[in-house]
Amino acid sequence: MIKYTLACDNGHSFEGWFSSSTDFDRQAGLGLVSCPVCGSASIAKELMAPSVSTARKKDEAKVLMMDQARKEAVAKIRELVTSIRENAEDVGAKFPEEARKIHYGEAEQRGLIGQATVDEAKALLEEGIEIAALPILPDDVN
Prior knowledge:
Layout: E1 2-8, E2 13-18, H1 21-29, E3 43-45, H2 55-86, E4 89-92, H3 95-103, E5 112-114, H4 118-126
Pfam families: DUF1178
InterPro entries: DUF1178
């Protein structure tokens, strides 16, 4: 589709959409295009700037695509975090202690979530206890 800025012989300006330049010429030649203000069928195309694809427009399109990809990725991460939370026991601040008990066979194997300081997390990792932080997602803080 092509959008033309059109004008009648009475100076009224308006827009029209056509499937091609030839389509406009055909319709105008048959008197099918008329001014919506005065009804004149004497219509001409006005000078207009073409729509040019610039690097900026391409960059903006990439940003929009990245934004959509980011939304999809965040949705998948949110789904994973929700599943982990639903299938794990929240032990709060006792996380380091409970993780050690499981690691050393003093407690039954089960999924845990809770809190640990940076130093506590480092110590667990140094002991060979596998842990991972759950991400805080953008909507979680709003």
